Amino acid sequence: MIEKIVDIETRAGAMETFTCRPERGGPFPPVLFLMDAPGIREELYQMARRLASVGYFVLLPNLYYRAGRETKYGPDVLEKGSAEQAAMRAVRTRMTIPPVMEDVGDMLAWLDGQADAAPGPVGTHGYCMSGPYSLAAAARYPDRVAAAASFYGTWLVSDAEESPHLSLGKARGELYIACAEHDDLAPPDMVAELRTLFDASGNGGEMEIYPGVHHGFAFPERWCYDVPAAERHWERLLALYRRRLA
Prior knowledge:
By secondary structure, this protein is an alpha/beta fold. It has helices at residues 42-52, 83-92, 97-112, 130-140, 188-201, 227-245; strands at residues 2-10, 13-21, 30-34, 57-61, 122-127, 145-151, 174-182, 206-214.
């Protein structure tokens, strides 16, 4: 495996990005791995490595870069009331979809200059706060994003002008939306409404509810980590990318 941390120049500055790809056999289909709210950490690096090991050029950007380089938090970021969580939330609450879509465009431009990144279709997937970003990227860049997945994405239906559900009918790539049965950030009534909207969108993808699990089930270091559900999430994601990025 070849991995590097690079600064990708964006319209807002230098975005620190972990990149990972196989050592042999390139060029490789590019994938944008969009972080969850607790931010960049070794747990996500390991997930990026797993994905890259089966043949992808993975980018894992620090989406909090606008707030500076000191936006990587320790394990206490998951503890309610901790200083780390307070610092993260101060940054997280300022995050909106439009600037992240600019970042996606700048990452796509950067990939165009990488000999080890295959030209053409790109995949995106996001967890938690970035589930909406992944869906929005498929709508904003329909000619590039051929596959987009959201895993326990937050507040996917709302009255906001940039509500993620508005992306469903604009994406031409295949979408995959996974929701946890127990999730305060995507409650059952919202998920039911989203399913109706998804079915009406005409997208050829899939929306799936993972029974008996909680928000965060795919992260090995989270209290709610569920091995069968986590492995299903990998199965679904890899199958999606094989179909659309070959």
